[in-house]
Write a structure and sequence with these properties.
- By secondary structure, the protein is α/β, with parallel strands linked by helices.
- It has 2 domains: 181 residues, D-Maltodextrin-Binding Protein, domain 2, CATH 3.40.190.10; 132 residues, 3-Layer(aba) Sandwich (D-Maltodextrin-Binding Protein, domain 2), CATH 3.40.190.10.
- It contains 11 helices and 12 strands.
- Strands 3, 4, 5, 6, 7, 8, 9, 10, 11 and 12 form a 10-stranded mixed sheet that branches.
- β1 and β2 form a beta hairpin.
- α2 packs across α9, α6 runs parallel beside α7 and α9 crosses α11.
- The N terminus is likely disordered.
- Keywords: Signal.
- This is C4-dicarboxylate ABC transporter substrate-binding protein.
- Pfam families: NMT1_3.
- InterPro entries: TRAP_TAXI (IPR011852).
């Protein structure tokens, strides 16, 4: 493992009364990072927020790190270069199966489930001045921004567009950068896969008129048949532009932890996030789904023993022993 250890001298004397009992921290890391994604996306805002919350509550130095998103986060957490990270279930499954493009053939089985985050809706945004109000309106050869290379959006949205018969030029970049390119006329469309509200979309709404484009029922059905997603509605009050809920599809996100992190550390970090949802919602509204009962949305990753114990003790989670790392 590459996470930093406290010096033996300091660690021997440290205990904390976290969760109402004396907690030995001697094997805890002195600092940690949370792999997020690009600035302007939900992962960065959400991940930096919970990293800071855990650091403050547990008295450990920690923070969010800008990354390429779920695929890179799986790799960073697997190797221990990041203690924690965030991923969607699709990239998690591909990483476990050895098809992560960062390290083809490597089964990234040292990244364990920590806690449920929220669903990532897939949505399309264009400037109102473009006249694009539906997927069918996207012109042949349109320049579409799909987010950072290797992100959930970049992994799945191009395939979804191809499934829907859209021909396009693929562009990559951070969400804030792509938002600027859309506003400057360098892109025709941005295909977002991020928790809502997406900061970059909210910023665009302040600066210009945009169309947030929903899928038709037929388009939604075609995508759900071809990809590991479920139906989703973006609530009308998510953006000022929306006058009614927007039909979409979504994929669940989970926080992940390196499987070799100390059980007590991951238990307490999970407790900080899951025990007070109001604090998480203050960080980002997508955290309304960061609640204990959504533990069952993970059917892909092995659970970290510390996280599994928290959900078993506090949410009545019936996690099979063979789904707990080392169990």
């Amino acid at each position: 493992m590459r996470y930093n250890k406290m010096t033996a001298l300091a660690a021997a004397a440290i205990v904390t009364a976290t969760a109402g009992h004396a907690q030995d921290m001697s094997d805890w890391p002195a600092s940690f990072t949370v792999g997020t994604a690009s600035q302007g996306g939900t992962y960065f805002a959400y991940g930096s927020g919970w990293a800071n919350l855990v650091a403050e509550e547990l008295g450990i130095s920690g923070g969010g790190e800008v990354t390429g998103g779920p695929m890179q986060n799986m790799a960073l957490v697997h190797t221990g270069d990041a203690a924690f990270g965030m991923t969607t279930m699709g990239p998690a499954a591909e990483s476990l199966g050895g098809t992560n493009p960062i390290a083809p053939g490597l089964a990234m089985d040292k990244a364990c489930a920590m806690f449920p985050m929220y669903q990532t809706p897939f949505s399309v945004t264009a400037l109102s001045s473009s006249g694009i109000t539906s997927v069918a309106d996207i012109p042949d050869g349109a320049r579409i921004g799909f987010g950072p290379a290797g992100s959930t959006s970049d992994t799945y949205f191009p395939r979804m567009m191809e499934t829907l018969g859209v021909n396009f030029e693929r562009r990559n970049g951070g969400w804030s950068d792509l938002g600027g390119q859309l506003q400057d006329g360098l892109l025709d469309v941005i295909a977002f896969a991020a928790g809502v509200p997406v900061p970059a979309v909210s910023q665009l709404e302040v600066q210009t008129d945009v169309n947030i484009i929903e899928f038709t029922e037929a388009e939604q059905a075609a995508i759900m048949e071809a990809f590991p997603v479920s139906s989703f509605e973006i609530a009308a009050d998510t953006y000022t532009t929306l006058e009614a809920p927007a039909r979409s599809v979504s994929m669940w996100n989970f926080a992940i932890a390196n499987c070799d992190l100390p059980e007590s550390f991951v238990y307490e970090a999970t407790n900080v996030v899951m025990s007070d949802n109001a604090r998480m919602v203050n960080i980002h509204r997508a955290a309304q789904s960061t609640v204990p009962e959504n533990w069952d949305k993970n059917g892909v990753l092995m659970w970290h023993p510390g996280a599994a114990r928290w959900f078993q003790e506090n949410a009545g989670a019936d996690i099979p022993a063979d789904m707990i790392y080392g169990g």
